[in-house]
Design goal:
The complex is a heterodimer of chains A (113) and B (115). With 113 residues, chain A is mainly β. Chain A has strands at 4-6, 10-13, 19-25, 31-38, 42-49, 56-57, 64-70, 73-78, 87-94, 103-104, 108-112. With 115 residues, chain B is mostly beta strands. Classes of the chains: A mainly beta (113), B mainly beta (115). At the A-B interface, strand 5, strand 9 and strand 10 of A face strand 5 and strand 6 of B.
Chain lengths: 113, 115
């Protein structure tokens, strides 16, 4: 089974802090993704990565950056956290072959005070 | 561009009743279709997927879905639900042009199974 592990289930940070959310997958998947999930808005793609050191903006990249230095790890960075970034963050990975599904971690519920 | 519409935001049913969760999509190219389930405070788990071939797809936990190309639909069904099926369900689509790497999700359907 694919295992996608997000480092924290719950996280509380303060406005203006630099926040790191970590995601690790154990299946040698090329593609990795960061989403945020908010009530009534569904899942929105923040950033994704086709492979190591590659990154692409998703639909809502403002206020975020990412890092993919190793294939198994994809980090989401909130450069200066704001209260409107309070949300559930979901990481996913995927084998880069046609028709392959994305596999999700359990999510990080982030609160910015 | 593709889009996904889940026609019901909430579906309440009684235990052991049948259920159908509706999903329509729009895309100009051939698509791959997925249903995911999300239990409270968890990530998304793949229920089933349609890539090609038979239009009736069976998944985990007794769920199945039928791909209808002419109606651009991919409805999820279960003949008899349990309390434990209470969760949010997401329909998602990707297309051959992107090799499926990006998914477009519907806004989700909350299924609540009552005793």
């Amino acid at each position: 089974d694919v295992k996608v592990t997000q480092s924290s289930r719950y996280l509380v940070k303060r406005t203006g802090e630099k926040v790191f959310l970590e995601c690790v997958q154990d299946m040698d998947h090329e593609n990795m993704f960061w989403y945020r999930q908010d009530p009534g808005l569904g899942l929105r793609l923040i950033y994704f990565s086709y492979d190591v050191k590659m990154k692409e903006k998703g639909d809502i990249p403002e206020g975020y950056s990412v890092s993919r230095e190793k294939k198994e790890r994809f980090s989401l960075i909130l450069e200066s956290a704001s209260t409107n970034q309070t949300s559930m963050y979901l990481c996913a990975s995927r084998l880069d072959r046609e028709g392959q599904p994305q596999h999700f971690g359990d999510g990080t519920r982030l609160s910015i005070l | 561009a593709q889009s996904v519409t889940q026609l019901d935001s909430q579906v309440p049913v009684f235990e052991e009743a049948p259920v159908e969760l509706r999903c329509n999509y729009s895309s100009s190219v051939s698509v791959y279709l997925f249903w995911y389930v999300q239990y409270p405070n968890q990530g998304l788990q793949l229920l089933l997927k349609y890539l090609s071939g038979s239009t009736l797809v069976k998944g985990i936990n007794g769920f199945e879905a039928e791909f209808n190309k002419s109606q651009t639909s991919f409805h999820l069904r279960k003949p008899s639900v349990h309390i434990s099926d209470t969760a949010e369900y997401f329909c998602a689509v990707s297309d051959e042009e992107t090799s499926g790497s990006r998914l477009t999700f519907g806004e989700g359907t909350q299924l609540t199974v009552n005793p």
